[in-house]
Amino acid sequence: MSKQTISLIGVPTDIGAGHRGASMGPEALRVANLALRLERRGLQVVDRGNLHGPINPWQPPTDGYRHLDEVVAWNMAVYTAFHQELSAGHLPIMLGGDHCLAIGSITAVARHCRETGKQLRVLWLDAHSDFNTAQATPSGNIHGMPVACLCGYGPQVLTELGGSAPATTPDVFRQIGIRSVDYGEKQLVREANVGIYDMRHIDEEGMKRVMEQALAGIDENTHLHVSFDVDFLDPSIAPGVGTTVRGGPTYREAQLCMEMIADTGHMASLDIVELNPAFDKRNQTAKLAVDLVESLFGKSTLIRR
């Protein structure tokens, strides 16, 4: 059997964010030795370098959206790169960049699923539900809108990035670690019936039970996409993000989450986003992210049966 090929795709932009600095995320992950650590797991890793797109003009919102044209350009680049890797049978990893870029990666994954007859499941590991619309958020920052856009709520240039219809429906998402949802957004996620396992749910049920629920129904015909926003983690262990929210998963809870995803054997694409070295301490958040990504690819304390 040939080795699984992992393709690293750097996307150095903070075009959708409210703070500058996520554009440095891809390099921080490389400095933390992501490729080498995955190669040690027996994987074949190809670093495709960085995608290119417009610079961040750092302007206020226009008609409710900040930098919409630039966000579309970056997401089209991600969409094209991701679809190319998936079509070649590779497992693409997006080194972000901010979370608006998941519009491009997941639109590509959804297209790949339609082409191969697979069921899509998206695990959204994040402090935020990212289901905002221009009407629900005054900031206009599109990194708070990707799930809404993927489900058809948002500007047509993003909701129909890969064709003439929204990429996905809310039922494909399982959101884990949520602890910050804007006032207007609460109504939106409720009406859309997004599967959300917030921190209270994790506190009450425990990470093991939550992951069993979130992963239920995954089988041989499932393409599992993991969208890992580093602010999913508690800021005490992961300070290097622009939008910290206290009360996130601990190191052990995060490890268990990743190990249980690995146990399914069905993760087929990954985003690592919102790592912001400008807020980090000696690259510790990037190192932690790489540590957790190793666990996504099967690193464990013991050899498990």
UniProtKB/TrEMBL annotation:
Q: PROSITE patterns, alphabetically?
A: ARGINASE_1, ARGINASE_2
Q: Which Pfam families match?
A: Arginase (PF00491)
Q: Does the keyword Hydrolase apply?
A: yes
Cofactor(s) recorded for this entry are:
Mn(2+)
Q: In which pathway does it act?
A: Nitrogen metabolism; urea cycle; L-ornithine and urea from L-arginine: step 1/1
Q: Name one GO molecular function term.
A: arginase activity
| Alphabetical keyword list | Arginine metabolism, Hydrolase, Manganese, Metal-binding
Q: How is the cofactor bound?
A: Binds 2 manganese ions per subunit.
What's its EC?
3.5.3.1
Q: What class of enzyme is it?
A: hydrolase
Q: Which domain of life is it from?
A: Bacteria
Substrates-to-products reaction catalysed: L-arginine + H2O = urea + L-ornithine
What protein family is recorded?
A: Belongs to the arginase family.
What this protein is called in its record is: Arginase
Protein source organism: Rhodanobacter ginsengisoli
